[in-house]
Design goal:
Layout (H helix, E strand, L loop, with lengths): L12 E6 L3 H13 L3 E2 L10 E7 L2 E6 L9 H7 L6 E9 L6 E5 L2 E2 L11 E2 L4 H15 L5 E4 L13 E8 L1 H4 L2 H12 L8 E5 L6 H9 L3 E6 L9 H11 L3 E4 L6 H13 L3 E3 L1 H6 L5 H14 L4 E4 L1 H10 L12 E4 L2 H20 L4 E4 L8 E4 L2 H19 L4 E5 L4 E9 L1 H6 L6 H7 L4 E3 L2 E3 L5 E9 L3 E2 L1
Parallel strand pairs: 1-4, 1-5, 5-10, 6-9, 11-12, 11-13, 13-14
Antiparallel strand pairs: 2-3, 3-4, 6-10, 7-8, 15-17, 16-18, 16-24, 19-20, 20-23, 21-22
Helix pairs in contact: 1-5, 3-5, 12-13
């Protein structure tokens, strides 16, 4: 995520409430209590539906008489009435049959038919940074009062909006709509809204409440624009995908893969590729923590060059290094990635002895590595800095040798760059030749114990085999 210097502090925000929406009135009452507001006069001939307008700093509350899902073109109407804005927040109610105690935020539009306002096949312009801010604020404030907080998928009107907008809602029945405690929470979340830039995903799959997408907002440095649940995927074609990308300002694509059919996954994957967008897994998105989106893309592409299924991993050291270098503001096109190739046999041996220890070594370095499909690590690593590459190569060779010494006798000849490995281990074939039956006695011998067969003592040294091999370490910095 980028720094607070990316906040749009001068954003003019209009909060739209409706006289026919109980939750909206609850939120409006708390908005009026939380700040000093000045009533404004707006010519009724310019905005017929407006009941009241209040102003406080860069916020305005506009109360309309009709339900706001039918407020198509309200951004243009407000502009013509002398109330231009950069962001619209609709304060509203959420209704569901299950009666969940829920605070939600979402964008508007109709991927298919227009059953509740708006136009069919049309998406409003989304405000993904505001959505993230509102959800995080509501989640922080809701505590243990019995309400969940969730992003919803795109649904209902208005859809004809060219100013970014977002809904903030109380759900799901009348008893919640008039709950003053959550009316205060949603009002505070609206007034605390910050448009801090971060990568924007468009989402596909899952249910209406987008559980996995919501979790990613809470656990990573991304936000979401328009989201299409499973029941709307049939309406996603190239035109709808294009709208979602453009109306969200999308950087990447996310699929709730486990919930989707293979056909739908392929359709979304093909669309993402045709638009040049990254389709990231949940683990990829979480790995982005503290890493600028441009940096992630650079290293992600390098990983994919070596293994299309590879999963990029940032060590804690390089996360800090990237932050200190402030690469977000530098010219990435002029910066080349340095590739470090470590002899595959060395990595293979270290993995076979202790893969956890090897991963810990990598996490304590200053490089980017990647995991293979079997969750082990590759022998290829990346960085932006040559000195870091040289230091890492020497560090990793030494650490791998330490890991190998847990199992083998090793000797590293630095001048020749050769690693000599001696392996002394239990040989089951030798044990069988001496009449030892497979089973517990094998285990005892392998663990250094002795066994007795027909009165004859067989010691572990009698069934061990000593082998030696030398590995020339073909390491390189490219």
């Amino acid at each position: 995520m980028q720094t607070t210097s990316d906040k749009e502090s001068s954003t003019n925000i209009i909060i739209i409430c409706s006289t026919v929406d109980m939750a909206g009135q609850n939120i409006k009452d708390h908005l009026l209590r939380l700040r000093e507001w000045t009533p404004l006069e707006v010519p009724s001939s310019m905005v017929e539906d407006v009941a009241e307008v209040y102003e406080s700093g860069n916020f305005r509350i506009v109360e309309v008489k009709e339900h706001h899902i039918y407020q198509d073109g309200v951004d243009e109407k407000l502009k013509n009435a002398g109330l231009p804005c950069d962001l619209i927040i609709f304060a509203s109610k959420h209704r569901s049959a299950d009666g969940r105690r829920l605070l939600t935020s979402h964008f508007t539009g109709n991927p298919g038919s227009a059953d509740f306002g708006g136009n069919p096949g049309e998406l409003a312009k989304a405000a993904p940074f505001a959505l993230r801010s509102i959800l995080l604020s509501m989640s922080e404030m809701v505590g243990d009062i019995g309400y969940d907080v969730s992003m919803e998928s795109t649904h209902h009107g208005p859809s004809d909006l060219n100013v970014p907008s977002v809904y903030a809602e109380i759900g799901s029945s009348e008893s919640e709509w008039v709950d003053t405690a959550v009316g205060d929470i949603v009002a505070r979340a609206i007034l605390a809204v910050e448009q801090v830039k971060c990568p924007v995903a468009i989402g596909f799959g899952g249910g209406h409440y987008a559980a996995r997408q919501t979790n990613l907002i809470f656990s990573s440095d991304v936000t979401f624009g328009h989201n299409f649940p499973n029941y709307q995927l049939q309406n996603v074609d190239e035109g709808m995908f294009r709208q979602a990308v453009e109306r969200s300002g999308a950087d990447l694509v996310y699929c709730d893969r486990k919930s989707m059919s293979s056909g739908d996954r392929k359709k979304v994957s093909d669309l993402a590729a045709s638009f040049g967008l990254e389709l990231l897994r949940e683990s990829d998105i979480k790995e982005m923590r503290g890493v600028h989106w441009d940096d992630l893309r650079i290293f992600l592409h390098k990983v994919k060059e070596h293994d299309p299924s590879g999963r990029v991993k940032f060590s804690e050291g390089i996360r800090k290094r990237l932050g200190e270098a402030d690469l977000a503001d530098s010219d990435k096109d002029g910066r080349s990635v340095i590739t470090i190739r470590v002899d595959p046999e060395l990595i293979k041996l270290a993995k076979s002895v202790d893969i956890t220890a090897l991963k810990n070594v990598l996490q304590n370095s200053n490089i980017v590595y990647f995991e293979l499909e079997d969750a082990t690590v590759s022998n290829v690593f990346f960085t932006f800095w040559k000195q870091d590459a040289e230091d890492f190569l020497a560090f990793l060779v030494n650490e791998c040798i330490k890991i190998l010494k847990e199992r083998y006798d090793t000797e590293y000849v630095f001048d020749e760059n050769v690693l000599h490995i001696t392996d002394d281990r239990f040989n089951p074939d030798l044990a069988r030749k001496m009449g030892v039956p497979p089973g517990p006695m094998f285990g005892k011998l392998a663990n250094g114990g002795s066994v007795t067969i027909d009165g004859r003592v067989i010691g572990p040294e009698m069934v061990r085999e000593r082998t030696k091999k030398s590995v020339v370490l073909n390491n390189a910095i490219l």
